[in-house]
Please model this.
Amino acid sequence: MAKHDPLGDVFAALADPTRRIVIHRLGAGPASVGELAADVPITLPSFMKHVRALEESGLITTSKTGRVRTCVLDRDRLALVDDWLAEERRLWEGRTDRLERLVTDPREHA
Amino acid sequence: MAKHDPLGDVFAALADPTRRIVIHRLGAGPASVGELAADVPITLPSFMKHVRALEESGLITTSKTGRVRTCVLDRDRLALVDDWLAEERRLWEGRTDRLERLVTDPREHA
DNA sequence: GTCATGCTTAGCCATGTGGCGAAGTATCGC
DNA sequence: GCGATACTTCGCCACATGGCTAAGCATGAC
Model:
């Protein structure tokens, strides 16, 4: 849909419960595709699609050693969400603060 | 997809750029469907789908007065994301802290 | 070499999503 | 009442998503 929308890709990746389970598990440290797949009741090929989706969103990185592919969580990517949230809050809190000030302390103005 | 997955619904809602624009705009205060639609280059019926998606995710509430439907942001719903993020971070930071402590301060003091 | 293991690729399918135009309904302003 | 305004409903369509089975390929164990 969107051509270059990193934040959107991250949100889309997090929208799926299966993928949030993976993120959660990877929070405890790297794991192989097989280990991760054991936590969900779907077939491996289906599971691999989720892994690829997570990798394309940038939330995880993977690398293959021998026949085992290991997945690692990229926390910086999760920070993208945090930043967006913080920015939105900053904007509407700025506005709220001004209203608050007028209500709670009329002397305090700009 | 998921039967009852509030967090997933919120993430899915935020995955679309159009809907993030709406959220952003509503951060500045309530607005009518028409006002909101003016910010994006799609037809009204298409836009309405986004409004409904946002409402079903719980991120906004809407009410109709006369022929105008007014949308309001529900910040508590956004907090759902914040909470999830905080919880995940709490988990893996707990682990990291323990490692950090061993590396940076073997004596383990306050 | 042979067999098990651990992905990986290649279809296929049902459903969901996001866009459209056309036409309908319910106020509001005059 | 009549026209403009502000949605709203109704198909319809292309493509994305998430699941499956079956078969393939590379590596590790023996």
Summary: The interface with chain B takes residues 1-2, 5, 7-9, 11-12, 14-17, 20, 23-24, 27-29, 73, 75, 78, 81-82, 85, 88-89, 91-92, 95 of chain A (CB under 8 Å). The beta strands of chain A are 31-32, 60-65, 68-73. Chain A has a mean pLDDT of 89.
